[in-house]
Amino acid sequence: MGIVITITSGKGGVGKSTAVGNISVGLANRGKKVVAIDFDIGLRNLDMILGLENRIVYDVIDVMEEKCNLNQALINDKKSKNLYFLPASQSKDKNILNKDKVKILIEELKNNFDFILIDSPAGIESGFEHAIFWADKALIVVTPEVSSVRDADRVIGIIDAKSDKARDGKEVEKSLIINRIKQDLVKKGEMMSSDDVLNILGIPLIGLIPEDEKIISATNSGVPVIYNKNTKSAKSYQDICDRILGKEIPIEIPNDSILDSIKRLFK
Ligand SMILES: Nc1ncnc2c1ncn2[C@@H]1O[C@H](COP(=O)(O)OP(=O)(O)O)[C@@H](O)[C@H]1O
Ligand SMILES: [Mg+2]
User: 162 pLDDT exceeds 90?
Assistant: First the structure.
């Protein structure tokens, strides 16, 4: 049976879809059969990150409404043959997901894949509960800002209350990704440190990702940054994939290069 991992956050725009894209590629390239599902109805952008936007014919709602079967909607990635993608609907109706239909879909995927990665809407959006309900694990993405951390704290509470596992008295395994760290600002005391964030949220850390402008160019070119070995963020995503697979890799604080710090001075 496949493992369902939902990538979520309290606030929007913190790097969830970017994380789903990169972690999906990383797990697929480690030989796992992976499907990435975009549950962010109306706001889809995981297709852009994976560079698959031109290949979309059907989406997740078409599958649930039986306008097509699952195989017709799944898009096989060009570069990572173990990776499949199920796009979000562009529908304006964010309440279109139906709990029983989501369940049938997830169960079918669990029978066919090692990992089901769900790109969730932020915790305040509708659709969030569907994305979290069937999760075995949740990766909560925060940026080191007070508002992001506060909203993440609320989301952790909702996951604990509303998942299928919680109904059974079990717990969804939760881990934290801290994204967009600017280590030079942390050193100057101008940005929350990862310890500050961890002390507030109290869930285990699975990865630290530096601020990296290469992520933006990667999205524009549709080639996830994890393919670009020369970037500092690729290493962070690779380490997260290894940790998901149970490897014990020490968590490193991503360091800004001197060049980055100088560039920021002139911005
Ligand atoms: N570590 C990072 N460094 C620089 N830019 C980033 C980083 N992570 C995400 N971004 C950028 O932030 C924006 C929001 O990311 P996205 O993954 O779409 O967030 P979400 O899915 O949480 O709304 C995108 O433009 C993305 O390229
Ligand atoms: Mg997103």
Answer: no
- Please provide residue 79's backbone torsions phi and psi, each rounded to the nearest 5 degrees: -85, -40
76 and 125 Cβ atoms separated by less than 8 Å: no
Q: Which two tokens stand for residue 244?
A: 């998901």
- Segment 32-56, tens digit of pLDDT: 999 999 998 877 789 999 999 999 9
Q: Is 43's C-beta closer than 6 angstroms to any atom of ligand 1?
A: no
Mutate which of 215, 225, 232 for ligand 1 pocket (most atoms within 8 A of beta carbon):
215
pLDDT in tens, 200-227: 999 999 999 999 999 999 999 999 999 9
215 closest CA partner among 207, 205, 227: 227
Report the share of the chain in percent with pLDDT over 90. 74
Residue 89 identity (one-letter amino acid): S
Centre of ligand 2 from the C-alpha of residue 232, in Å: 21
Are residues 87 and 44 in contact, defined by beta-carbon separation less than 8 angstroms? yes
Write down all domains in the chain, each with its CATH number in brackets.
3-265 (3.40.50.300)
Residues, Cβ < 5 Å to ion ligand 2: 16-17
* Residue matched to tokens 């409404």: 65
Q: Is the beta carbon of 42 within 6 A of some atom in ligand 1? A: no
- Ligand 1 mean position to 152 CA, how many Å? 16
For residue 95 the two structure tokens come to 């309440």
Is pLDDT of 267 > 70? no
Rounded (5°) CA angle 75-218-7: 60
**Whether residue 84 has pLDDT greater than 90:** yes
Whether the per-residue pLDDT at 261 is higher than 80: the answer is no
Cβ of 236 less than 6 Å from ligand 1: no
